[in-house]
Specification:
The protein is α+β, with helices and mostly antiparallel strands. It is globular, with a radius of gyration of 14 Å. The chain has one domain. Helices cover about 20% and strands about 45% of the residues.
Amino acid sequence: MTLPPLWEEQPKLRSDPENVIGKLGNKSQAVNGMVMGLKGIIWNKKRANQVGLEVAKAAFPDGEMKKAEEISLSDKKKANLYKYSGTAVSDGQEMEMACITFVQKVGKQFLIYVMTMPNGYTGDIENDMIAIANSAK
């Protein structure tokens, strides 16, 4: 994957799930995210989208889906993009946060993109996520 300007790869932690294939972030916009890869005959787009939803719900237990839309990627494929918002607690303070997820099939695996950010940045981040997805091979 090729990252847009201001984005950088972040180190994976030993505690990260096995299916996390990359972590990335944009410090200037306080965005953190990960890409998960799911392989095998049990996976399809619907099940992969469900995993993305579960990750978003784990990040924001009181959150709610704000938008679901179909987006186009450069390879003439479609992806379902979901936007969530909710409250997260950091250093004892509550913050309004947003999460964007979408699933893309690359080769024989499904890639699940999950990005969390302060509420309000989702438009720019959505475009960056699409650029990252278009570079995935």
